[in-house]
Design goal:
Helix content: over 70%
Radius of gyration: 26 Å
Low-confidence stretches: none
Mean pLDDT: 87
Order of helices and strands: HEHHHHHHEHH
Shape: elongated
């Protein structure tokens, strides 16, 4: 049976092998006398600068992450509003047009879930969403105009949220800042390996602790930067929940019966 760690510790398990590799290199450097650097205040200043940059990146990606947490629930609300109207029209008017619209929106829901897992392209999803205009037009003789306007408003909201998810998923927050943080983290790790800290067992502890924190934070920021990476098996610890859409999919199966 394959062991699947808790999502809380998956990132930790990705960092631990790297830290162990650094400790092995530290032992080799100590064993062969390659510890040429001495601990001084400049090294502490470099660590502080890196921590400042990490804080800057986290503050930026957290804003997008908090916004992203709301999107699946808002998508589910907009889709369910359209489904409810179709169900209502079908019950009161016994309209095949309302049933056809319901089935189209339910199919769109499945397409959106597939799109989150990159099983469908954004352009194709937008085309299917735009096709709902034809379905809404067929409902105009059956209900008041303001209800049709409401359905089109929900359609517009869905389009806006899909566009926002696509933007968050396909772009990174400040790639230049990512690059400098990664470079500084690499240089600091290399410096810790070549630094002489007495006694030796204390140096191993501080090398492991500092390198673990720095590498963990870099990987955490990368995970937070794309909260919709359900399609990436190596990036499954910090994704926003699709539970509102999955719950709606189950409810929709019972709504038209």
């Amino acid at each position: 049976m394959r062991f699947l760690p808790s999502p809380r510790f998956r990132l930790t398990l990705r960092v631990v092998p790297v830290v162990l590799g650094i400790l092995v290199l530290k032992y080799i450097a100590h064993r062969y006398g390659w510890e040429y650097l001495s601990l001084n205040s400049l090294f502490g200043a470099i660590i502080s600068a890196n921590v400042f940059l990490v804080g800057f990146l986290i503050s930026g990606v957290l804003a997008d992450y908090k916004e992203s947490e709301k999107i699946p629930g808002e998508l589910a609300c907009s889709l369910e509003t359209i489904l409810d109207e179709c169900v209502s029209l079908n019950k009161t008017k016994q309209s095949p047009e309302a049933r056809a619209c319901f089935l189209s929106v339910r199919e769109l829901l499945g397409n959106i879930l597939g799109w989150f897992n990159k099983k469908q392209k954004t352009g194709e999803l937008m085309t299917r969403l735009s096709a709902l205009y034809t379905q809404f037009s067929s409902l105009e003789p059956l209900t008041q105009a303001n209800f049709i306007v409401r359905l089109k408003q929900e359609q517009s909201s869905i389009r806006r949220m899909i566009t926002r998810v696509h933007t968050i998923r396909e772009t990174s927050f400040n790639p230049t800042a990512y690059a400098i943080v990664e470079i500084i983290t690499f240089i600091l790790s290399l410096g810790l390996i070549c630094m002489r800290i007495d006694p030796y067992y204390e140096s191993m502890f501080f090398v492991a602790f500092v390198s673990f924190i720095l590498i963990y934070m870099v990987l955490l920021i990368k995970d937070l930067d794309n909260p919709f990476a359900y399609y990436d098996a190596d990036n499954v610890s910090e994704e926003v929940s699709l539970k509102p859409l999955l719950d709606l999919e189950r409810r929709a199966a019972e709504m038209m019966k």
